[in-house]
Design brief:
- By secondary structure, this protein is α+β, with helices and mostly antiparallel strands.
- The chain has a single domain (about 10-100), classed as Alpha-Beta Plaits (2-Layer Sandwich).
- It is about 25% helix and about 30% strand.
- The protein has a four-stranded antiparallel β-sheet.
- The longest helix is centred in the N-terminal third of the chain and has 17 residues, at about 25-40.
């Protein structure tokens, strides 16, 4: 997962919930509109999904070398949520925040050195 020879120091975590019956459709849309562009700039990207009876939760984790690298992609404030064009159509509620964490260590097969 380590791209461009950079070391991941920052993880940016986004979470969103979708009605279960639209989860597959949102997953495909999110990949095309959100993940593909992100993969060109971040060191690595993980997408996770948890299905429940009535809704599915999506989590996207992108890895960055620095906040300035992240800001170059997301805009002036990397903590701001940048919604995709159709997020309001799919998401149960629009997320108001992302979580930014420092990567302290990786263990096992994570793809990072």
């Amino acid at each position: 997962m380590q791209a461009h020879g950079k070391q991941p120091n920052i993880a940016r975590i986004w979470r969103g919930r979708v009605r279960r019956e639209r989860a597959d459709e949102y997953e495909a849309y999110n990949y095309e509109a959100g993940i593909k562009p992100l993969m060109k700039k971040a060191i690595g990207v993980q997408t996770l999904r948890e299905d429940h009876a009535g809704e599915s939760e999506f989590v996207t984790i992108s890895y960055w070398e620095s906040l300035s690298d992240m800001a170059a992609f997301t805009g002036a404030d990397p903590t701001d949520v940048h919604h995709l064009e159709r997020d309001a159509e799919f998401l149960i509620e629009l997320p108001k925040a992302v979580q930014i964490l420092n990567v302290r260590s990786s263990h096992g097969h994570t793809g990072f050195a």
